[in-house]
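Quick look at the format.
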Amino acid sequence: MTAVSAWMTTSHTGDGMEIKLSGDWTIDSAGRIDGEIAALNPGTGSTCVIDAGQIARMDTAGAWLAEKLYRRYAENGADTIFRNLQPKHDILLKRLQALAGDPAPEPERFSALSIIAGRSAPKSYFAGILCPRQLGRYRTADDPDIAG
């Protein structure tokens, strides 16, 4: 299978921005797409729709970039949603976001010996490993609270 380069096109709408994603969002295109995301100016638009309907393939690197794009607009106050996510890409993004969560505080440091001995690591350390946060944090056009 021949890889199709990833693309991202932007257009202004009446109340914000629409970003269309297409191609293979994989490690092969990560460097270029990361640069394009960094060059975007999220401004203060009231909405940002990320249309992912034309993504052919997505790996973990591509999911991280889609998450980065989402956060770039959401953190600037835009009502940001994904639209037309394929189910397999939706699952990948939800799993990634469950692992990423909100920006994490600096982790506590433990030596392997102290963890084995059970002296240093708090119970919450093991709970985070065994019971990751609930899946799903971002909004999609399929959410019942989104009109349209």
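Next, a different chain entirely:
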Amino acid sequence: MDEVIVKCEGANNKRLDELTEFQGTLKEMSKANYNKLKKLILKQGFSFPFFYWHDPETGKNYILDGHGRRLTLLQMKQEGITLPDAFPCCPVQAANETEAKMLILSASSQFNTITEQGLYEFSETAHIPAEFVEEHFSFDALAHVDFAEGYAPENKEKEIGELGTDNACPKCGYKW
């Protein structure tokens, strides 16, 4: 039988029923991404703690980061997969609900972009097979490519500054 192994630590441990969903409909997870996350958790274990805000008014622990992992773990439990009694968690301070929800947006923001070339080079140097990357992860850089076929820099879209001046208007000589 499959079992989820915890491979990280937090400031404390909490049961899944002690963590309350807090993001509403901000994000959604497709069935395909659920399956990827489930495979990843089974292969690599539960490797990152939940981050939560404890609301002193309600006494609830609202999830700031880990909504998808919590939903995936709850579904895995329904499928008969053995889960630990509690999971590593880290409390995060916020003055109120608005500030806590701003922290959700902070945790969800991606300020760096994973590029197809960068992902390919990272995977190559780390000896991570392209098939594993495609099967277990979800990145914008994978959205429109068959990553397992290999990175083809000659097929990537060029930035404006990378465009040459190979074309010229026969009447005025304007080059583009």
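The chain has a mean pLDDT of 88.

See the schema section for token definitions.
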